[in-house]
Amino acid sequence: MEMRNHQQGRRPGRLEQFARVALCVCILLACGYGIKRVAEAPDIIGLLNPGVEPTARVEAEGRHLVLSDYRFDLHQPGSMTQAEFALVNNGSRPVRDVTIFCDFYDRTGEKRGGGRWVVYDTIDPLHEERYKLQEKRYLSHLIDASSTICRIVDVRSGGPQLAGHQPGRNH
Predict the structure, then answer these.
(1) Which of 78, 147, 159, 165 has the greatest number of CB atoms lying within 10 Å of its CB?
(2) Distances in Å between the alpha carbon of 108 and those of 48, 83, 124, 140, 143?
(3) In terms of domains, do 87 and 21 share one?
(4) What is residue 10's predicted lDDT score, i.e. its pLDDT?
(5) Do both 69 and 99 map to the same domain?
(6) Which residues of the chain have pLDDT under 50?
(7) Contact 143, 74 (CB under 8 A)
(8) 166 in any annotated domain
(9) pTM, to two decimals
């Protein structure tokens, strides 16, 4: 006599079928999004390092804040990068914690990456401040400092300065 295995001939229930269909739909959506993202990227740098858009606070609180000048010394010994920023607050309120994003380009104009710096200081109304920031950051030797484009991407409204801060000092 032959005994039948009940597990072997069992058909999947409706819940299992729904779960399989839902999983397939999720996988197809994820693949579609990935293909769309790759197709829209101008190059591998744009795919891996997308641009940074300014926050709503920049429009609301930083309208009168201007990044008037910036300079870089990109290829210092030990992979150090020195950035110098000049910020002018033409508004009537102090601003603080300014985030600056820079796109790095090579001599041919091709984007080679980006960098983010935060100036942890309060800039009083109708004042200009200069800041030197230095950090360890690897940058390709192809990057040309003169073709770097920077912009303010975030800012906070003024508040109390950090204890021990000395205005006008290099940071």
Answers:
(1) 147
(2) 20, 22, 39, 14, 10
(3) no
(4) 66
(5) yes
(6) 1, 5, 161-171
(7) yes
(8) no
(9) 0.62
pLDDT at 107: 82
Contact 119, 171 (CB under 8 A): yes
CB atoms within 10 A of CB 87: 24
- Residue 132, helix vs strand vs coil: strand
Closest C-alpha to 171, from 94, 99, 104, 84: 84
Are residues 37 and 78 both part of a single domain?
A: no
Is residue 1, in this structure, part of any structural domain at all?
no
- pLDDT of 109 reads 82
- Kindly calculate the radius of gyration of the chain based on its CA atoms and give it in whole angstroms: 26
User: Quick one: 81 and 135 in the same domain?
Assistant: yes
Count the alpha carbons within 13 Å of 149 in the hemisphere toward its beta carbon. 10
**Per-residue model confidence (pLDDT) at position 43:** 54
Give the structural domain span for 95. Answer: 56-157
Please report the pLDDT score of residue 69 as a whole number.
93
- The answer to whether residues 34 and 82 belong to one domain is no
Identify the pLDDT of residue 143: 77
Q: Rounded CA gap, 156 and 94, in Å?
A: 9
Q: What domain count does the chain have?
A: 2
Kindly state whether residues 66 and 35 are assigned to the same domain.
no
Residue-wise over 12-26: b if at least 16 C-beta within 10 A, else e?
Answer: eeeeeeeeeeeeeee
